[in-house]
Automatic annotation (TrEMBL), chain A:
PROSITE patterns: LOB. Belongs to the LOB domain-containing protein family. Residues 5-106 form the LOB domain. It holds the Pfam family LOB. InterPro entries: LOB. This is LOB domain-containing protein.
From TrEMBL, chain B:
The keyword Kinase does not apply. Residues 84-111 form a coiled coil. Keywords: Coiled coil. Residues 6-102 form the LOB domain. PANTHER family: LOB DOMAIN-CONTAINING PROTEIN 26, LOB DOMAIN-CONTAINING PROTEIN 4-RELATED. InterPro entries: LOB. Belongs to the LOB domain-containing protein family. It comes from the Eukaryota. This is LOB domain-containing protein. The keyword Coiled coil applies. It holds the Pfam family LOB. It comes from Musa troglodytarum (fe'i banana).
Length: 162, 148
């Protein structure tokens, strides 16, 4: 940096490292590998343009993410970071599936615990007793069975009726 | 090569290249795709990276490079690393929700099992009531006279 020790980028590019070198704060001379991989994947001029377009307080994070992406691409020249993203997306999908299954299990248990009011009413000999005392519970049971939650969620419906 | 058959790369770079190696992966119908790649990686870097990959894998590599470039254009600070961070957060949230839901399932299952055991015990008593010996008379209740 400055006149004494050129930064890693200026060393690699074999140029004079000025005091306002845009790379100097992020690519110190003691870690030449860091700039080498970023230069190999993105190119020094592209990295310089990217950093110039960012406010100063965000440049360190940007360099960190560029180094990460460049490293990933060197390890996996075909997929780079996209390989890791694809793996994580699969994990998210699997977890969401497991969550849906668990939520459906709760739904099933709750439905099993619902008192079968309709069946009790049909078995009672005294229908007047049934009509006078249990009529208000029937609409609730019918509404639950045909609720929009169950009808419109295809995943829940599939697990419910298998 | 005529204007209409140039790939997106050659049209963007205003060159005429009959054997452009980017042509199969950057068709002219999608100029934005190459524009992102050129802005982030540069045409020569992209071509060099694809050349180092076996031909049968170049399409996937071109797609991945295009995606990374697109994410970097959308998020100039974090690029695809931002996408990775977001997915890791989603996984963390989903794992927590799943653990809570599975704990609820265990609790409900235990409740149902407990109720089922109680019903079984009551049913047993009802079924075997005739085996219980006669109880001594309860004071105050009307009892039938003893038959000699």
């Amino acid at each position: 940096m400055g006149g004494n020790s050129p930064c890693a980028s200026c060393k690699l590019l074999r140029r004079r490292c000025t005091k306002d070198c845009i790379f100097a704060p992020y690519f110190p001379s003691d870690d030449p590998h860091k700039f080498a991989i970023v230069h190999k994947i993105f190119g020094a001029s592209n990295v310089s343009k990217m950093l110039q377009e960012l406010p100063v307080h965000q440049r360190a994070d940007a360099v960190g993410s560029l180094v990460y992406e460049a490293t990933a691409r060197l390890r996996d020249p075909v997929y780079g970071c996209v390989g890791a993203i694809s793996y994580l997306q699969n994990q998210v999908s699997q977890l969401q599936m497991q969550l849906a299954v668990a939520q459906t299990e709760i739904l099933c248990i709750q439905m099993q615990q619902e008192p079968p009011l309709a069946e009790q009413k049909m078995e009672a000999d005294d229908k007047s007793f049934v009509i006078n005392n249990n009529l208000t519970a029937m609409p609730q049971l019918l509404n639950y069975a045909s609720s929009s939650n169950v009808a419109q969620d295809p995943l829940k419906r599939e697990f419910l009726w298998t | 090569m005529s204007n209409s058959t140039r790939c997106a790369a050659c049209r963007y770079l205003r060159r005429c290249c009959e054997d452009c190696m980017l042509a199969p992966y950057f068709p002219s119908i999608n100029p934005e795709r190459f524009a992102c790649v050129h802005r982030i990686f540069g045409a020569s870097n992209a071509a060099r990276m694809l050349q180092q990959i076996p031909v049968e894998q170049r399409r996937q590599a071109a797609d991945a490079i295009a995606l990374e470039a697109y994410w970097r254009v959308q998020d100039p600070v974090y690029g695809s690393v931002g996408v990775i961070s977001m997915l890791q957060r989603e996984i963390s949230v989903a794992q927590r929700e799943l653990a809570e839901t599975q704990a609820q399932v265990s609790m409900y299952t235990a409740q149902v099992q407990s109720q089922s055991n109680q019903i079984t015990q009551v049913q047993y008593l009802v079924d075997n009531a005739h085996l219980i010996p006669n109880q001594p008379p309860i004071h105050g209740l009307c009892q039938p006279p003893d038959i000699p």
